[in-house]
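Posting here for the record, re: iron/sulfur cluster.
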Amino acid sequence: MTTDMTDAPCCIVPKYLATFRCIAGACEEDCCHDWRINIDQNTFKKIKTSMSHSKTDRDRFRQFLKRNSSDDKDTINYAYITCRPDGGCPFLDDGKLCEIHRRFGPSHLSLVCRSYPRKKSLVGKRTEVVAFLSCPEVARRCLLAPDAMELVELEPGRLDSDAICTEIKSGTGESPYHAYLDEVRQSLLNLVALIQFPLASRLFFVACFADSVSPAFSNGNSEFSPEILAENIEAFSDPFTLRELHAQFEQIDSRIDFAMLLVQRILTARLPSISDNFRALLDQSWKNYNLLAKSNAPCPADDPQRNPEIFTTIQQLYQRRCSLLQETFTQRIDQYFANYSLNYWFGEWYTRSPDLLVHATKLFIRLAILRFLLFSHPALNPLVEQLAAGKIGRKERESAQEALDQAAVETFYRFSRGVEHDPVYLDDIQQTLAKENMEPLTKLTLLLKF
Ligand code: SF4
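Prediction output follows.
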């Protein structure tokens, strides 16, 4: 993270986004598949006028664009597009190009379509943009380049000024929790970016920082002391303190049963209502464990008491795969998860959560789920076997890393589509975590040991 976040008028983006282009027909997805795409009022009127000149267009307009009749209707979610039975957008052609864009131009694209996969925020006069990893091309750029999360300034005019703004920090009349966004966020970004430590230790620093400042630094807290916050920021930039914390983290027992159970519970809780796309990713992981264990036992294993055998088997197999892959590809794997974490702290403001501990927990559980799904990916079976047999030379490593990269991109983008865009799912996860009656720092540490 090399660019300081100043408050001058400018637009700051992570490097991966500065050169991002939609790859349209070459993409493995169509962005809007299975989603309800909102149409803002202005765009609705423009499309209606442009599609009023023939009966076919008028019929298609009526069939595919519906007015929103819910209570939360506003100018942004004024109407929506009805998906085809297969979940696709009815305006996408076979080459995955948008008919509205092709026939009427970009001015007829709704704000949602014009913004995606970007997400814009305003901090005073400064604009910040990140992107959702639900777009496979974004996931590729964000995860696979070592410098993807370097913050750079975008030339004026490169950003669509109408892009939807999801976060605004005006700078006036704010509580300290909101007012110190830049300072606190920069400290967190700095901790995640300390590549001289393993990623798990860096995230442990984040957990300890959150644990230390949260009692006096939370939403609506009147006990705030700027001196204590400043002391913490300084302490957590001291190399000696960080080395001590790293040593402390290394001493902690690596038990994974807590995190495994939590991950399985979360993944199974909403099975009936998750998208087909995410379901396919889950199914292939569970089928893989059945295959590897030569078992016909029901998988998933959300309840070790009901089915202790399959739960233990999954745990053992996961642990073996995880250590083989992590030991050989430490740097690459840390890079995926570090870049994902940096994108999170930069783009998903902690001010949305009641305190930093809750915000860190939201990230750490996502990381644990992503690790489970990545290391369980069946495309990695041949690589795991090669590693177990010690048969991987320098030559094979290159193609092995390609396989790992592909599995990572698929895992992250499908997870993002299935979970990060589903507010009900995210809420359920929060509730599941809140039920775990445990000290927050212990919970965070156990998730990091997964
Ligand atoms: S998912 Fe991303 S790359 Fe694919 S079509 Fe949508 S914006 Fe383009």
